[in-house]
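re: ur question from earlier - yeah i can do the single chain one, its not a big deal. heres the input i used so u can compare w yours
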Amino acid sequence: PDHTRLLVFDDISEIVSAQRAQAWGEVARRLAHEIKNPLTPIQLSAERLELKLTGKLPDAEQAVLTKSVKTIVDQVDAMKRLVNEFRDYARLPAPKKDWIELQALLRSVLVLYESSPARLELDLPQEPLPALRADASQMRQVLHNLIQNAQDALEGRQDGMIRIEVRRNADTLILRVLDNGPGFPPELLRHAFEPYFTTKPKGTGLGLAVIKKILDDHGARVRLVNRAEGGAMVEIEFPLGDEVREGGRDG
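and the output i got, formated as tokens:
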């Protein structure tokens, strides 16, 4: 008898990634709820202590009180920001897609970075680009996150450069955000889109996870690359689908 066997290998990495993102979303929702409740009473109690005791203590003790209350209030504010990021990740709404002109959206976002210490460049093809079916506000969020990440990487450099490129293939639009900074640390490349993984001292690790979730909901692929010539690149590939609406070149 013929004992030939056929082995079929399925790549389930994207399914596992989606399941992990869903689980982290539930963790984020619970954390946001459980942590946020006690924060306001902590802040109010510290401020009430300062109000009651100010003017009744010697200078040295007054200085300790003022410094301690400021520390409590500042740390509570930091926790509130963290909780809000947890909440936003957990509650990220389904995209409301409409036809958008990517080049017009890029220009409207870049206007907000005109005072950026880094040099910003926009590289669009000469031919008109098709419109995208996407949620405009979520696409703005993606762009802001990517530009701010690049700015963080370039902090302190006098020759910082951020370039945004758009290219069209047969059935995709490709958006690249490049910089001439130090590139991605190896551990970030391995864990880039895992929620709460960060290499920044004050980061929450949610920025890239939110980007990935938004782009997954748009059927887009994203990858991080260290450029051979130095610096980092984030590449996003948007599917155009069967229905393509040709757009005009903006500006």
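The beta strands are 98-100, 119-123, 132-134, 161-168, 172-179, 221-226, 232-239. not sure if urs matches, ping me
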